[in-house]
Specification:
The structure is a homodimer.
Chain A lengths: L1 H16 L37 E2 L9 E5 L3 H9 L6 E6 L3 E3 L4 H4 L10 E3 H4 L2 H4 L4 E11 L4 E6 L11 E5 L2 E4 L4 E2 L7 H4 L6 H17 L7 H7 L1 E5 L3 H21 L8 E6 L9 H13 L2 E5 L2 E4 L3 E4 L4 E3 L2 E4 L3 E2 L2 H5 L10 E3 L11 E3 L4 E3 L12 H20 L24 E6 L2 E5 L10 E4 H14 L3 H17 L7
Parallel strand pairs in A: 1-8, 2-3, 2-9, 3-6, 9-20, 11-12, 11-17, 12-13, 19-21
Antiparallel strand pairs in A: 4-5, 6-7, 7-8, 10-18, 14-15, 15-16, 22-23, 23-24
Catalytic activity (chains A, B): a ubiquinone + NADH + H(+) = a ubiquinol + NAD(+); a quinone + NADH + H(+) = a quinol + NAD(+)
Protein name (chains A, B): NADH:ubiquinone reductase (non-electrogenic)
Family (chains A, B): Belongs to the NADH dehydrogenase family.
Chain lengths: 501, 501
């Protein structure tokens, strides 16, 4: 684009040559003229039937091999952080340009933490993708996989931008790491996608925060009936896993401290109900679970044993016919395989995840690996499918990162060159323990490998302190560590943020 | 709603009476039953023809008089902060529940500051609206004014919530303060509202940040043509007032530091063009203006003298026929009267603002005042209409706050009771000076009352330091002062935030 270069040239030469006193706003020197502008419109478009997509071609023997990572969650980011970029070029394909520190996401829904304190840009986790000529981050979704040709087909993300058409391209890989995560399970219940909010991404937390504040203000309008006030301020959480319990705890903290002070007119109308079909926190042992239950009830959370049958715009229908009116409905009933994962023609583990062997390889295809919530051990390995936890995903990312580095150093980095290589020790998962807060400076910490083994299992304020300290040190960057600490401090001193922006 | 109270009762009695060891998740005591739920749907609706709207009735002689404030900008918030809530009940009607610290809004577009560091909830500026039984904040727009009956007709804001219908209500006032601000001027140019982004509210800054990051990532997709890359990364700013200049400076800082480091693949394609029909920063004197011009050009901002004729989805057409392709278009050409202000049957000042006398009263109607960007002195006062500046608005809010307190103390708080009261000194505006940053740690500071008078006029790093210090002390709350300082520090150390959330 010649006009661009010409403009830059004119601008900078003006900047350096004109003397200070000669500068005069009406002088023709001051303003760059646009007379050289190209007037033809050359907007780029792609025909939907155009299968000759542009893309990154296969690497050549002398070049660095290319690792393509699908996803930017715990697994993919840990792998990218650990991969040796002197051996590999890294290409990440994900619909979001950041990683979410999921254990702290519930805290952002009520303003205890800020959204940006729990997100880390991929470009900071692995700086090579912003700088190296062969490494990239693409804000895109994987649409198709061609394992025969070692290719991934992608479509760019253009959300919310009407003027931008999705752009299709393909990427040749030497190694492919599928770390695309899972989807929230709706169990096929009608209305969940339309009316409930999940709690897996930052935009979910943003939606919850906006809706909660809107409902608090809407319920205070003159003439709103008592019944409608109760409905608007009834926060219903479906699913009593760690996410649902932590979110309920955060909500009750928000109500006890901030709603009572900042929305005093309606404080007696707001309530939290947690609906769970079985037991809350089923992965914890009896004693911890009972403590959590007692604690939640004490802080005003209503625990209801029920199964959701139908979700309507303003009420949930339970299996026994009970209607539960709600103003805010949060759905946290666990995860299942995503549409992409279901569509892939690859071996599957029990539960429909991508099946992997002990080295996290997808058998039957060359150079394809899967890690995190989207993968599970194949039945033939004799190992159980691991739970969809951050620590499982991170451990797999770490393992596969060093495995790929080893393979690369041994000369097996390029496509189809690692068939005969010795891979070493397989991936073994050792559970480090579980933690969950229940609000009011209380938490559960279970540092045992499983419910049956011996070890440390704590409840109360000390647990809460361990919970906070552990996460503060786990937060990936120093920047976010500072922000999480500052957020916690200002929440303590000034209360939670209630700007509805 | 009887079921609600029953549930609370059951929950809390369980919480206190059941012993720890007896807690068992399968016990019927633990989970509250929903069997008492009302199953009739009693969702509240309003007929559009229902003119018997609910609302706040006129105050009675023994009660506190009610001041209704329309708007939550500089003028309205300063007034609410200063009003004596032992004399008055305060009711604020605004479509946003916070005040925006506008001078720092441009910094949030590129991540130098966070959005929440420049916003302050109304409930913190005037805590009475969250607590006092007669004071309220309503998230609503004023639709109509009935000065004969001392009434305001409002409609609630439900943006983005499909399941919530707007709610109509009316409020009787004893004193009405119109502080509803102004609207961005488009000069009737086709396409501005559709394709350009203004820079007046936090959601504008959010949109700019999201779009800028999306364009940076979209331009790095495989196969995007050179021309399309240039277009996507061409940031065009229309209007060379303080907002346009400060935003251009922030953008060039972002490009020089963060794009070069974090988006190295496309760094040579991104450019900023500032289009202005006359002179940039016309309110500053020649020397400062020339400095700003030189500084902007030096940091790579292209200054173009031109008038926009038409705005199309991907290009701006200038008066001379030049086509300027853009990826991001920010419109900051000043403000004019809003639709509400234009629709009100009140006296008008030159320029179409609500006309006020020297005491900021709207003549011809009782108990109505106007402050901030929406008002201007009537021609009959012989005074010029004041510029749409934060300091004008704030000063007017402060003046009117103490005027109303005085009137209230003298027993003139209620409607139609202040006719004969002596109001004291009229409002006089004294300009304290102007400031603007131009990026690269440089700013202009002009501490003179007008261009003609003598006084301090500085440029460069010292000015920039004064600019930052002045705003840091002006930020309303300690919470935000901490956050602005922490944001500036982390930007310096870690760079700007590039999470696209």
């Amino acid at each position: 684009m010649a006009w661009f270069r010409r403009l830059i040239h004119v601008s900078s030469s003006i900047g350096s040559s004109i003397k200070y006193r000669n500068l005069n706003p009406s002088s023709p020197f001051l303003f760059t003229s646009f007379s050289h502008f190209s007037t033809e419109s050359t907007l780029q478009t792609q025909s939907p039937n155009d299968f000759q997509y542009p893309g990154l071609r296969p690497t050549k023997p002398g070049e660095k091999p290319r690792v393509v990572v699908l996803g930017s969650g715990w697994a993919g980011c840990r792998l990218m952080k650990d991969i040796d970029t002197s051996i590999y070029d890294v290409v990440c394909v994900s619909p979001r340009n950041h990683m979410v520190f999921t254990p702290l996401l519930a805290s952002t829904c009520v303003g205890t933490l800020e959204f940006r304190s729990v997100t880390e840009p991929i470009g900071r986790i692995q700086p090579a993708i912003s700088r190296d000529p062969g490494s990239f981050f693409f804000l895109a979704n994987c649409k198709e996989l061609d394992t025969n040709n070692h290719e991934v087909h992608c479509e760019s993300v253009t959300d919310g931008e009407n003027n931008l058409k999705p752009w299709n391209f393909k990427i040749s890989y030497d190694k492919l790491v599928i770390a695309a995560g899972a989807e929230a399970s709706t169990f096929g219940i009608n209305g969940v996608n339309e009316h409930a909010i999940f709690l897996r991404e930052v935009h979910h937390a943003q939606e919850i925060r906006r809706k909660l504040l809107l409902n608090l203000m809407s319920s205070d309008m003159p003439g709103i009936s008592e019944e409608e006030k109760c409905r608007l301020l009834h926060c219903v959480v479906i699913g009593g896993g760690p996410t649902g319990v932590e979110f309920s705890g955060e909500l009750s903290d928000f109500i006890i401290k901030d709603v009572h002070e900042r929305y005093a007119h309606v404080k007696d109308y707001i309530h939290v109900t947690l609906i769970e079909a079985n037991e809350i926190l089923s992965s914890f042992d009896d004693r911890l679970r009972q403590y959590a239950t007692k604690q939640l009830i004490k802080t005003g959370v209503r625990l209801v044993c029920g199964i959701v049958k139908d979700v309507q715009p303003h009420k949930v229908i339970l299996n026994d016919g009970t209607e539960v009116p709600y103003g805010l409905l949060v759905w946290s009933t666990g995860v299942g395989p995503s549409t992409l994962i279901r569509s892939l023609q690859l071996p599957k583990s029990p539960g429909g995840r991508i099946g992997v062997d002990e080295w996290l390889r997808v058998p039957s295809v060359q150079d394809v690996f899967a890690i995190g919530d989207c993968c599970g051990f194949l039945e033939s390995t004799g190992k159980p499918v691991l739970p969809a936890l951050a620590q499982v995903a991170e451990r797999q990312g770490k393992y596969l990162g060093s495995l790929l580095n080893k393979v690369g150093k041994a000369g097996g980095g390029h496509a189809n060159t690692a068939r005969e290589l010795e891979l070493g020790a397989p991936f073994v998962y050792k559970h480090l323990g579980s933690m969950a807060t229940v609000g009011s400076y209380k938490a559960l910490v279970d540092l045992r490998e499983s419910k049956e083994t011996k070890g440390l299992a704590l409840t109360g304020f000390v647990s809460w302190f361990i919970w906070r300290s552990a996460y503060l040190t786990r937060v990936i960057s120093w920047r976010n560590r500072i922000y999480v600490a500052v957020n916690w401090a200002t929440t303590l001193v000034f209360g939670r943020d209630i700007n509805r922006i």
